[in-house]
Specification:
By secondary structure, the chain is of the alpha+beta class. 62% of the residues lie in helices and 9% in strands. It is built from 22 helices and ten strands. The strands form two sheets. Strands 1, 2, 3, 8, 9 and 10 form a six-stranded antiparallel β-sheet that branches. A four-stranded antiparallel β-sheet has the order 5-6-4-7, with helices on one face. A hairpin with a 3-residue loop joins strand 5 and strand 6. Helix 3 runs antiparallel to helix 9 and helix 4 crosses helix 9. The longest helix is centred in the N-terminal third of the chain and has 35 residues. It is extended.
Length: 621
């Protein structure tokens, strides 16, 4: 079980049966229709028929527009009447009949969206009005003490009447200079102020126009204009505030109406999903090649379902032609995987990078056990593993998760099982809680014997790298490249194993026999690599030098193995943080109220430790 074999489907039907056929195909859900670009590659084979592509996109564009409208309606409802949902709340389950009913009654549902659109436009108008009124209030507040209507700030036959501002830093000098003039000929009233300026009302006799103008110029007096305003500033402010209150009441009424319309949220959600399905169907129609009377559909279907697919269509449609073919040797086709239920959750990990090549091995069968084992080592706490396993099992069985969410929960569940195993082996039970209660590690405590743990992690790395080489060798053998498997993987096995035995024989005092065997294997492997790794070169010297340079790949092997020290680093992090949380809990414990704080620290601390190291273990694995 791995990459599923696929069959290429070519279907020719009559235009009058097109909708029926597409609906049947959609209900079965096991055919991937090829895009027009893919079909163009085989269009030369259709010379018997003068086929043309469907360019009528009006129906698709109409449905996409409706989808945008429904999306707008849902977003507006969420903005003004959000639905509170828990982290583990289940999504509602609907059947095909409900979706079809929502699609058929979409006119009534879209009428609600139109009403929501009008309400949103009214809210926008109110927002603009509120902004204008607030700006008016801000503009008038510095002039609030002025008791003259702004529309009456006009010159008389003998006097000049105006309002203006002077910079804060020049106000006192400005007033002192004004005081030097004849007080009977000028009146200056200081009003409010803005951030940088003081506001003034000024009235003076035209006989001193020249002197006053000179003073205004000297102190950069800026005359203010109040065109369009009527009444005193205080009256304008009061009216603006009253209008703001009215605007707020109107806003509240509109929001209340939106809230009432939110009882149609479920219908909009149904229609949203129904429109997405219809878009998929119309895209399939667009990918058809057709004449006035017939159409051609091409796609891919799992080989084991091909005959059943063909038989169902032939039973329900009289005039139809279906051809099933194996893919050509150089032809790409969609990838579908089928694995054991234990392996299936780990497909999401490989999907994060890319799906396997349809003609390559599915790596999940080999990757899954290593992922779970390494995940368990990096978490390394049996207590945490039990909690994670229970939580993941609950999510899978009770929350009815689907798709990648279910697969992720499955990965965590199987990883949690190995977390319990490795935690018990290394003595990790909620940090050092196990040690405190007399639960000793089955093997050893990594924090007390770090060198032993590092060596163990390097050993895991060697096994993992060797497994990867084995997969490559198997792929070569399966494709008939037996010599490639011998030269490119077998000789590296000999070289690496020999090198390891040689080093261990000397470092671990395993005896001269191990050292001698390792030395011979290393030399034989090196010679074999030198003689074979350049075999694709034409020149004998190029063959030799390519073979010699290939030995440099041993540095990549060593760096790969050394990178497995992260297993120890992350496992140690989990244990240290857990131990610190236990120490903090013990510090505040003692009296009855202290144990309440201790319980809070332990719960929050260990939950945090599980969450942060769960993320770290998943990413680094």
């Amino acid at each position: 079980m791995a990459v599923i074999d696929m069959k290429k489907v070519t279907l020719i039907g009559i235009q009058s049966d097109k909708e029926k056929i597409l609906n049947i195909i959609q209900s079965m859900g096991n055919l991937e229709i090829s895009s027009l670009e893919e079909q163009e590659e085989t269009q030369e084979q259709d010379a018997v028929l003068e086929l043309s592509k469907s360019h009528d996109l009006s129906a698709l564009e109409e449905i996409q527009t409706q989808l945008s409208q429904v999306e707008f309606g849902l977003e507006l409802m969420d903005q003004y009447n959000p639905v509170k949902s828990g982290l583990f709340d289940m999504k509602p389950q609907v059947d095909a009949h409900e979706l079809a009913q929502a699609f058929e009654s979409r006119s009534a549902i879209l009428a609600v969206v139109s009403e929501l659109r009008k309400l949103e436009e009214s809210l926008s108008e109110i927002s603009l009005k509120e902004t204008r009124l607030k700006n008016t209030i801000i503009q008038m507040e510095p002039w609030e003490k002025l008791d003259i209507p702004l529309n009456q700030l006009e010159d008389t036959l003998t006097t000049r009447v105006l309002a203006g501002t002077v910079n804060n830093s020049a106000v006192q000098r400005f007033l002192d200079t004004i005081d030097n003039l004849d007080n009977n000929l000028i009146v200056v009233q200081q009003l409010g102020q803005t951030t940088d300026e003081i506001c003034f009302f000024v009235a003076y006799h035209k006989s001193i126009e020249e002197e006053v103008s000179q003073i205004f110029k000297e102190f950069a007096f800026s005359q203010s204009s109040f065109a369009g305003y009527e009444g005193t500033p205080s009256k304008i402010i009061a009216e603006a505030k009253e209008q703001l209150n009215e605007a707020q009441k109107a806003r509240d009424e509109i929001i209340k109406t939106i809230t009432e319309l939110s009882n149609t949220r479920h219908e909009l959600q149904l229609l949203y999903d129904a429109l997405l399905i219809e878009i998929d169907r119309l895209n399939a129609v667009h990918n058809l090649i057709q004449t006035d009377h017939t159409f051609v559909l091409r796609g891919w279907i799992p080989a084991k379902e091909a005959e059943k697919f063909s038989q169902i269509l032939r039973d329900k449609v009289n005039d139809i032609y279906i051809k099933l073919e194996d893919p050509a040797p150089d032809e790409d086709f969609p990838v579908a995987l089928e694995n054991h239920p234990i392996i299936t959750p780990f497909e999401m990990v490989t999907d994060l990078y890319s799906t396997p090549n349809p003609r390559e091995l599915d790596p999940n069968t080999v990757m899954a056990p290593f992922f779970a084992i390494f995940f368990g080592i990096m978490m390394g706490d049996a207590g945490y593993g039990i909690i994670m396993a229970i939580a993941a099992y609950y999510l899978i069985k009770k929350m009815n998760l689907k798709g990648d969410a279910k697969k992720l929960a499955g990965v965590i569940f199987f990883g949690s099982i190995f977390t319990v195993i490795w935690g018990a082996i290394f003595g990790g039970w909620f940090g050092d809680a196990g040690t405190r209660f007399g639960i000793n590690p089955i093997w050893f405590n990594p924090s007390e014997e770090p060198i032993k743990m590092i060596i163990f992690c390097f050993g895991c790395g060697v096994i993992h790298v060797f497994a990867g080489m084995g997969v490559k060798a198997y792929a070569n053998i399966k494709e008939g490249r037996i010599l490639d498997a011998v030269f490119d993987q077998g000789l590296w096995y000999v070289f690496y194993i020999g090198l390891i035995l040689w080093l261990l024989g000397g470092m671990a005092s395993l005896g001269s026999t191990f050292t001698q065997i390792g030395k011979v294997m290393t030399i034989v492997g090196a010679i074999g690599l030198i003689l074979t790794q350049g075999r694709d070169k034409k020149n004998i010297f190029a063959k030799f030098f390519s073979g010699v340079l290939s030995l440099y790949d041993v540095t990549g092997f060593l760096s790969d193995v050394l990178s497995y020290s992260r297993l120890f680093a992350l496992g140690l992090t989990t244990g240290v943080i857990g131990t610190v949380m236990n120490e903090l809990g013990a510090m505040v414990g003692g009296k009855w109220y202290g144990w309440i704080f201790a319980a809070a620290i332990l719960i929050v601390g260990h939950v945090f430790n599980i969450a942060i190291n769960l993320l770290g273990a998943f990413v680094h694995t």
